[in-house]
Amino acid sequence: MPKGNHHGRTKTRAYTAGYHRIYAKIFKNLVTASLGNYMLDSDYLSSEHKNLTLSEQTDGSRYLTFTINAKPHLVALKFDNSSASNKLYITCPYCQKQRQSLYAIKYAYACRQCIGLHYASQSERPQDRLMRRIRKLRKELWGCDWPDVNNMFENIYYWSKPKWMRWKIFEQKRNKITELEKKYWPMAVARMKTSFGENFIL
Ligand SMILES: [Zn+2]
């Protein structure tokens, strides 16, 4: 897994690069095929990712069951009736959204978005998450072009009120950021101490 700052959405490409993908279109034959067990033809997939059972609900809609790590992973076959192409989609077992493809991860199939979210929340330290939130709130209040808006060492206390904003609202927003920064600093100091050891000077 790459190190550094992780932002779920923009970095999903990096998370998904190593995974094999299955596309909705490979299941086209299963829309009319008889129900039962099937196996995907792939050298990249584990046998648990290859074996599936095709079933039908009472309303006639079809779904696939992959048994991975002893748990059933349900993938529905869905047609997009809103478009003329009537394209086939598969649903993600995690978010249930219609997708054109799913990724084979260690113990599951999941869509790109679910993989990204999963890894972002796992790899991002609480301190990084807090820093990202503080920077976001600062930008909402002072704008992206404000000098030092990203600089965590700068104290926001002396930053001026945007002209159009009421004092009361401004103070509420600024206090919220100050409150988060008070939480942020002990975490940051603890981490700097472990990285710099004896040489650390606050
Ligand atoms: Zn998903």
Summarize the structure.
The chain has 202 residues and is an alpha+beta fold.
Mind explaining what this structure looks like?
This protein has 202 residues and is α+β, with helices and mostly antiparallel strands. The strands form two sheets. The chain has a six-stranded antiparallel β-sheet with strand order 2-3-4-5-6-7. Strands 1-8-9 form a three-stranded antiparallel β-sheet. It is built from five helices and nine strands, in the order αββαβββββββααα. The N terminus is likely disordered. It folds into two domains: 111 residues, no CATH class; 75 residues. Helix 4 runs antiparallel to helix 5. The protein is elongated, with a radius of gyration of 24 Å. Bound molecules: zinc ion.
- Strand order, largest beta sheet: 2-3-4-5-6-7
* Number of separate strands: 9
Query: From N to C, what is the helix and strand string?
Result: HEEHEEEEEEEHHH
Instruction: Report the uncertain regions.
Output: 1-10
Q: Note the total helix count.
A: 5
Q: Name the shape in a single word.
A: elongated
Mean pLDDT: 84
- By secondary-structure content and strand pairing, the structural class works out as alpha+beta
- When the domains are counted, the total is 2
Helix content: 25-40%
> If you compute it from the alpha carbons, what radius of gyration comes out, rounded to the nearest whole angstrom?
24 Å
Outline the biggest β-sheet.
6 strands, antiparallel
How much of the polypeptide forms β-strand, as a percent range?
Answer: 15-25%
Alpha carbon gap, first and last residue: 31 Å
